[in-house]
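Lab channel / #folding
Pinned by the channel admin:
"Please post every new chain as: sequence first, then the structure tokens as a reply. Keep commentary short and put observations after the output so the thread stays searchable."

First post following the new format, from NK:
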Amino acid sequence: MSELRLLLQLAGEAALLLWGLHMVQSGVERAFGGRLQSMLGMALGSPLRAMVAGLGVTAALQSSTATALMIAGFASAGAVALVPALAAMLGANVGTAMIVQLLSFDASWLSPLLILIGVIAFRKSSRAQTRDLGRVGIGLGLMLLALHMLVGTLAPVESSPTFGRVMAALANDPVPNLLIAAVVAWAAHSSIAGVLFVATLAGSGVLGPEAAMAMVAGANLGSAVNPLLQGGGRSGDRARLRLPVGNLVNRVVGCLLVMALLPTMTGWMMALDDAPVRYVANAHLGFNVVMSAIFLPLLRPLAWLLERALPDRPELDEAAPRYLDAAATDMPSVAIANAQREVLRIADMLERMLDISSRSFEDAGRDAPKQLAEMDDLVDRLHRAVLAFLAAIPSDQLSDHDAQRLSEIQSFAIALEHAADVLTRDVARHATKRVRRGVTLAAGDRQDLAALHDSLREQLRLAVAVFMMEDAEAARRLVQSKEQLRATEREAARRAAQAAPLPLGEPGATPGFVLDAIRDLRRVGGHLAAVAHPLLERRGELLSSRLAPAGKG
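Reply from TO:
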């Protein structure tokens, strides 16, 4: 019973450590997730800058896995080359080691203070960011408390004869130690938690120096498995595995070096600082710094090998989501950025649909309605996938900014889908009438329809600018364009009413379906213009029924 009680106590204290780590990560993610991701994206230009950025973002998030998912998102979107992405992962690994360095000092006396400050900030503040920082304070306090409790619980274990015989057997064979630590880090989804657990065992006298060194290497290996498993979430897309496989290669080579040079490396680390906890922290930092120094000049050949071993898929299903990685839903800012990129694909498809719709009123556009129906099916499938992905993001983990951005992505996706439906179900129907009746449109009608399609393409580009950058000038122009479409519709109706009646099909005749098509194209513009309304309302530039006069707000 005493052994069972000990195991339960250790499991509970380890769970408390993991929960504290989760609170720190989620608090930083909510408070600064978007800015951290933007900083990382801007820095992924050169290997050295990418490595520094990876270190900084990981130090803030306290999770190299979270950083890996961010980098993988940029890489899968084609926004960053593989070499800087691999360099950023090297920096992320060093970042986790820096966190362990800070936590290796005895700061258990800070635990009550951090929890107190965190609870006050979380409960009393009305600002979302302050509450998120309060969550960070609570998490750090819980981590320090859990480490202090683990040390106290493991103290009697050192004198246990049974445990002593087990550890003596393991000390003679470092491979089991390495594998045990790898499993712990993999299960915890964190090398930080794995290494801190090793440090606690070493500080309690349970582990000898060589066993601790092997377990440090194992913790680094185990934490590299999680991004690999999460990166393989979409079957067939082998190119997405390049980054996690490259990181795993780094870890495996490091473990092989540690096993080959275990006595020598143990001696070096002991000479640096023989205090058990500091020894483990220094070993973790040394492991990652040395592996970064070895691999940084080898990143280009490594990337070359990875690109050939894991090639791009020759053909992608256009309707299949490319950026909606289910593993990212636990990190709202990463998931929202992925959904944003997917919605831009829908915008690209709508632009192609406008091109097809424009051709449908020409003599060579007989197949255009069928092509529009096929494209609309693709838009519908992506639209459903985006909304389902956004619904899977835990709402309780969203900051106010993330919640607003999620709503904007949903609204933009819905507006694009509605616009595509109008083109397919209504505008294409009018084009089909032209083909069925054998009507050749007058030059003026063709010019009107072509001008409307050009205007809608420009509106779509403005809508994307509003969606991506909250461009107020683009929002104003977007709403004004909607009014211009209404004026175009009125002018076309006036000209048709004033024209002398001509038999249908005669040059100069304006069929009724042309006016109907113009009216439906204006509806497309209305769906696109709706994207600008929330931004203009926040700026006080939109009245209840029209755009406010220039200069207001």
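NK: Residues 308 and 398 are 39 Å apart (CA to CA).
TO: also worth noting, The chain has a mean pLDDT of 82.
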